[in-house]
Specification:
Layout lengths: L5 E5 L3 H18 L3 E5 L3 H4 L4 H4 L7 H8 L5 E5 L11 E5 L8 E5 L12 E4 L3 H14 L3 E4 L5 H9 L5 E5 H7 L7 E3 L13 E6 L3 H7 L5 H16 L8 E10 L2 E12 L6 E9 L4 H17 L12
Parallel strand pairs: 1-2, 1-3, 6-7, 6-8
Antiparallel strand pairs: 3-10, 4-10, 5-8, 5-9, 11-12, 12-13
Bound molecules: the ligand NCc1[nH]cc(CCC(=O)O)c1CC(=O)O.
The ligand NCc1[nH]cc(CCC(=O)O)c1CC(=O)O binds next to strand 8 and helix 7.
EC number: 2.5.1.61
Pfam family, one: Porphobil_deamC
Family: Belongs to the HMBS family.
């Protein structure tokens, strides 16, 4: 007996299709079942407004989740950083596969690095988090840069550099790797001054909570350490009561010598988009072995950041 194909709901963007295609192949291998891609248009794909203005949180995800809830598709692949932190009861995060490079990168004209950009360089990014950290970095070094709000898919954003409209754009390394444009990167931005968005570089594979067999099969793709890291990062975001368009960066990584992992470190940052004020803190604890432990790590850092005034920096929106 041949089982029917599993339907994977996906956005149409090149990045979404690349991510979904890779996951589809893995699911075919794991389940022996055919997988078909079902294309779904989301509000985030059709709106021309800036993400920060339409509220950001979940615009890419809502239409996929509605298709899941209606049973039109069996599972969906999201960029984890685009997922709102609240998990709907009827859906389950069946797998968080091993993470790609979580860092942000620069694509600049003439192969320039951040430190070599000319005075007054125009750097495109629609992300308040990237603006805040770029501007803070520039202030500390007395570089004069102008952050210019842009949006659109990855190709569109890189296009602003090729057309000469902008000197550089900031993008996630993972997305460029997935669509095969990593060779255009001119500088990798160290997380020492540019913490990525919570969950950046990781994927989330989601299905209906009622579909226990499928959830279990998809669960074979889960990487527990990636899941622990992104759970801690998202717990920080949730405890700060911020969304994906807030100026919040976070990165959890493992500390230890060689193969002996000893601890998880969680770094977090909140700032004003002009970079004049940043609250940047780090906490370290045992590697979380449960969901609750990972949540606790994020909450602990959040309370330290709130005690240092983080709340006052988050109301602000990019213009
Ligand atoms: N918000 C758009 C988005 N969602 C996920 C990625 C990149 C891939 C990832 O971080 O997993 C991007 C593009 C970007 O920020 O450059």
């Amino acid at each position: 007996m041949t089982e029917r194909a599993l339907r994977l709901g996906t956005r149409r963007s090149k990045l979404a299709m690349a991510q979904s295609g890779q996951v589809a192949q893995e699911v075919r291998r794991l389940t022996g079942r055919p997988v078909e891609l079902v294309e779904i248009t989301t509000y985030g794909d059709t709106s021309r407004e800036h993400l920060a203005q339409i509220g950001g949180t979940g615009v890419f995800v809502a239409a996929l989740r509605e298709a899941l809830a209606r049973g039109e598709v069996d599972f969906a692949v999201h960029s984890l950083k685009d997922l709102p932190t609240a998990q709907p009861d009827d859906l389950v995060l069946a797998a968080v596969p091993p993470r790609e490079d979580p860092r942000d990168v620069l694509i600049a004209r003439d192969g320039l690095t951040l430190d070599r950009l000319p005075d007054g360089a125009r750097i495109g990014t629609g992300s308040p988090r990237r603006m805040a950290q770029l501007n803070a970095y520039a202030r500390a070094r007395r570089l004069r840069v102008e952050t210019v709000p842009i949006r659109g898919n990855i190709d569109t954003r890189i296009g602003y550099v090729h057309s000469g409209e902008l000197d550089a754009v900031v993008l996630a390394a993972a997305g460029l790797n997935r669509i095969g444009r990593a060779d255009e990167v001119t500088d990798v931005l160290s997380e020492d001054f540019m913490l990525p968005a919570p969950g950046q570089g990781a994927l989330a594979i989601e299905c209906a909570a009622s579909d226990a067999d499928l959830a279990a099969a998809l669960g074979d793709m889960d990487d527990p350490l990636t899941r622990a890291a992104v759970t801690a990062e998202r717990s920080l975001l949730a405890a700060l009561e911020a969304g994906c368009s807030a100026p919040v960066g976070a990165l959890a990584d493992l500390l230890g010598e060689e193969e002996v992992v000893t601890e998880m470190r969680l770094r977090g940052v909140v700032g004003t988009t002009d970079g004049s004020t940043l609250v940047q803190l780090s906490t370290t604890g045992p590697v979380p072995t449960s969901h609750g432990d990972a949540i606790a790590l994020g909450r602990e850092l959040a309370s330290e950041m709130l005690a240092k005034g983080a709340a006052g920096l988050m109301g602000e929106r990019a213009h």
